[in-house]
Amino acid sequence: MPLATSARRAGALLLAAAGLIPLSGTAQAATAATAATAATAATYTPIVFPDQDHGVVYDLINSATRSVDVTMYELRDTTAVNALIGRRRAGLTVRVILDGRHTSVNGAAYSALRAAGVGVTYSSSAFVYTHQKTVTVDGAKSLILTGNLDSTYYSSSRDFGVVDTDANDVAAIEQVFAADYAQTSITPSDGDNLVWSPTDSQARLLDLINGAQHTLDLEQLEFGDQALVDAVAAAAGRGVTVRVVGMNPSSYSSYFDQVVTAGGQVVTYSSTTGLYIHAKAIVADYGTPSAKVFAGSENFSDNSLNNNRELGLITTDSGVLTTVESTAARDFANGTPY
C-alpha cells in the first residue's frame, strides 16, 4: 500500500475509533476492537503531519451532519474548500473566518466559498493576525492544528493536530468563533484545556515550562520571545534535560545560544533538508505522573502570544503525549546539532 494511502487509512481509523467519522459495515467489523477500546478512552485524537496526509481533515469535514466552523490563517487547499462547499450544498451551516492580512493567499478560497453560499468573512482588525487553525464539526468536536490548510506545504511541513471532543473545550471554541465571526469582542474561556492568544497564552506556556522538573522537549518554528526563551534556559540551568528542535538558526541564533549556554541542546532544520519544522509543541516531564503536552498555533513570538488570535491546548492525555514526544524525539535525533 502506498505510504500516503496507508497514512490516510491510519488517520481515518483513529478518527473512526474515536467515533468521529462513519465507517462502512466491513470496516466497522474490522475495527470493532479498536473502537470498543477508544470509546471509553479517547477525548483527544492526535495527528502527525506529514506522516499522515490531510485526508484525515477532509474526512472530518465530510462527517459533519449539522455544521462546520473553520478559523484558518491560510486556506489554500482545493480539496478542503470543495469539502466545505459540499457540506453547504448538503444543507449544513458552514462558516469560515480567514485571516484578512493574507488575501493574496486566501482570496481564491474566499471567492469560491462565497460564491457557493458559504458564510465566509475576513478576520477582525482587532488582531494583528488571526493565526488560529481550527475546524469544528457539529458543535461537538474541534480539530486544533499547528499548521494551515495550505497544500503548498503539506509534503514537507512537520505539524500536529488534535481532535478534541471535550465538551467544555468545544463550547469555548464555538463561543469565540461566534464572536470573531461577528467581529465583536470576547474574553475567551479556556474550557478545560485551551490556551488562547492574546488572552493568556504567554502565562500558560510559562507555567508549563517553569513547572518542568525532569525533561522539556520543544518543536518551534519561531523561537524569539524573550520571556519564554528565558524560561527554557532557566529550566536547563536547574538541571532539566532540554531539547529544542527549530528552524532558521540565523534568525534565532542568540536565543539558541542562550539555551545551549545554559546546558540545553538545540538541533535545527533548513528548508532544503526535506522537513520544515512548522510545529508549535512542548512536552514537559514525559513518562512521569506530571507529564503535560502543548500543541497549537502559538509561536514563541510577541505577536503570536500577545497580539494575534491564536489557539492551542495543554493536556495530560497519554495518546497525545506519546505521539508528540515520539515525533519530537525522532526529529531531534535527525536534526543538525546547533
Task: Break the fold down into its secondary structure elements and pairings.
Layout: H1 3-17, H2 25-30, H3 32-39, E1 44-49, H4 55-62, E2 67-72, E3 75-76, H5 78-89, E4 93-98, H6 103-115, E5 119-122, E6 133-137, E7 141-145, E8 149-150, E9 157-164, H7 167-182, E10 194-197, H8 201-210, E11 215-220, H9 226-237, E12 241-247, H10 249-261, E13 265-269, E14 276-277, E15 280-284, E16 292-296, H11 302-306, E17 310-315, H12 318-334, E18 336-337
Parallel strand pairs: 2-4, 3-8, 4-5, 9-14, 11-12, 12-13
Antiparallel strand pairs: 1-9, 2-6, 6-7, 7-9, 10-17, 11-15, 13-18, 15-16, 16-17
Helix pairs in contact: 1-4, 4-5, 8-9, 9-10
Note down, in words, how this protein is organized.
- The chain is 40% helix and 25% strand.
- Helix 9 (226-237) runs parallel beside helix 10.
- The two termini are 37 Å apart.
- The chain is α/β, with parallel strands linked by helices and 338 residues long.
> Percent of residues in beta strands?
25-35%
H/E element order: HHHEHEEHEHEEEEEHEHEHEHEEEEHEHE
- Taking pLDDT < 50 over at least 5 consecutive residues as the criterion, the unreliable ranges are 1-42
Mean pLDDT rating: 90
The biggest beta sheet is recorded as:
8 strands, mixed
Describe the global form. globular
Report the C-alpha radius of gyration, rounded. Answer: 19 Å
Would you report the number of β strands?
18
Helix content: 25-40%
Task: Output the structural class.
Answer: alpha/beta
Number of helices: 12
Distance between the termini: 37 Å
Brief summary of the model shown:
By secondary structure, the chain is α/β, with parallel strands linked by helices. The chain is 40% helix and 25% strand. Strands 1, 2, 4, 5, 6, 7, 9 and 14 form an 8-stranded mixed sheet that branches. Strands 10-17-16-15-11-12-13-18 form an 8-stranded mixed sheet, sandwiched between helices. It has a two-stranded parallel ribbon with strand order 3-8.
